[in-house]
User: Fold this.
Amino acid sequence: MKRDIKYCVIGAGNGGVAMAGYLAMMGYSVNLYNRTHEKLIPLLKEKTINLTGEVTGSGKLDKVTSDIGEAIENVDVIMITIPAVGHSKIAKEMAPYLKDGQIIILNPGRTGGALEVYETLLRERKRNNIIVAEAQTFIYAVRAEDATQAHIFKSKHEVSLAAIPATKTDYVLELINDVYPQFTPAKDILETSINNYGAIFHPAPTLLNSGHIERGMPFDYYMEGITPSVANVLEKMDSERMEIGRMLQIETVSAMSWLEDSYGGFGRDLYETVQNTPAYRGLKAPGTIQTRYIHEDVPYSLVPMESIAILLGIKTPAISSIIDIAETIAGKEFRKIGRTADKLGLEGLSIAEMHLLARQGRISKKRYFVEEVV
Amino acid sequence: MKRDIKYCVIGAGNGGVAMAGYLAMMGYSVNLYNRTHEKLIPLLKEKTINLTGEVTGSGKLDKVTSDIGEAIENVDVIMITIPAVGHSKIAKEMAPYLKDGQIIILNPGRTGGALEVYETLLRERKRNNIIVAEAQTFIYAVRAEDATQAHIFKSKHEVSLAAIPATKTDYVLELINDVYPQFTPAKDILETSINNYGAIFHPAPTLLNSGHIERGMPFDYYMEGITPSVANVLEKMDSERMEIGRMLQIETVSAMSWLEDSYGGFGRDLYETVQNTPAYRGLKAPGTIQTRYIHEDVPYSLVPMESIAILLGIKTPAISSIIDIAETIAGKEFRKIGRTADKLGLEGLSIAEMHLLARQGRISKKRYFVEEVV
Assistant:
């Protein structure tokens, strides 16, 4: 038991509330941070989060705060649960308060999150002795009504995780496996970044159900939203994603196999497997088309995948067309906003150098690293 | 009155039944042809079509047949109402029986229909003294339960039409304006082909409502299916279409203005205008994703538009992404199946030469025309 580990959870959304509540329920010291104070108000008096669903119980938090310095003071592990759009910003905000050896875990990193946060800290702190890890997906399927309670539909059986530097992955797992034994080591953050199944399950079903979502009539996102034809599109996108993984010599499994591994789903194809994943039952579709499933998963998952594919000379017509439609529907230039290979520092690197960057967070070849590391 | 004109209507689908019924009701001699005999069985005894909705009454047909020779024998005007996928085939089947001076009207041609039929007849008959016209859209919003009755939601106020050769457009209009005064002359078939609003209104709302359509729960296709975000995509596609039109020096109006002109719709944007187009009320979405709205409008409307845009050096990201998604969802290579600029004989032509081809159905520059015309 490692009950002396102190956690900070960043973000009081669905995931953050569930994670903070669970860690506290398991006896750990937990601070919960949220950028806006309003969201925390219901928690200020009792500081207690109630969990229902697969996990039942309650946990009492140590601190509930919108002061980042106070939130991460003396904690060992910082669990980031905010959308990827905020990763770089929160890294900048934490930078002045971080102490060497603290561990940041992105839950999840989407594609390239750990690399982006690591680079941001490198720039802000000149040197970087912070471990930045990313989980390949969020550990729960969860919905929270407010900051005092969360309903956990299901915990995933297995979630891979990698750290920068990669030599610290096992160390991170050792610390957190006591409370979350589901985390398993990935080779490096390229593996967690390419095995990003939100990229497959979030934008396309949302777009292909645009009308229904915008009419505001609720429906089950996975069970009803992923019809056989929608599943066909997902399978095409997923095969493009796997092709990127193969080129990068990364271990990757299909979205279908991943559903089997994570939730015990089963079936002959992706459509059947989704239907036979009870964890997804009851998860409602977003109430608007302007959702994280578009505004986060397109620029921070699909855009970097497409961009890396271009570097590798791979065509991704299904992924690219979903980005195109998302740009049109959201009226945003996601390819400009998003994490491109260029922004992640991957451009001009060989595949071996990409892995070196992923494992070390820097390679001497890149001039701006040299300048800042000395 | 030109009651001595004899019509043949090809195709006993929604549109064909309504058109045949109306022409007969107005006192014209009408033959109705359908490829499969089964569809005609309910009509064999009484040969009478009942119309409800905007037009109420009934019309008695002359012949009801699945013999193409019998169907078009001694008729003046042949109204083609079958999907564009069948245009070339029906042209081949009619070729041996056609008599000089007969008029074929495609209702509608989609994009490039008249050109394709004209070329097919040129190849089949060596010389071509048939007039081939295309309407820019179908004249009715209509649904038919079976071949004996159709419900006409609304006739459009105005439908443009062009003939090959273009010098015969006025002659064709003179013949049919007696019964259909809504038809107005277009400059040439490039104009009717680019002003193809089915390309805008059919594939994208279907795809962006894929889940709902495939779940089989009925909804109003236009009123419910075209939400503000879906309308944004349509406006983007429409602006790409208009850009093609401008480059081709074709008169074109936006889909929004077209709704105003055709149905008296009104509003500040396309979404509002669709909502304020009562003619669209009650028109249900297709019951399957494998619908004409995909299998016809993608290869015979969007594919030729994209292909012409490429010739002209115009980018069409919204149109192209809808084609991409349609290919994935339908599992068909619509760009290979469809009417490309190459297949329409437009490749390598200047814009002036494209109009020459559109007006004459042939230009001496193209070798295969020279060979076959002599």
Notes: Chain A touches chain B through 32 residues (CB under 8 Å). The longest helix of chain A spans residues 228-247. The first strand of chain A starts at residue 6 and ends at 10.
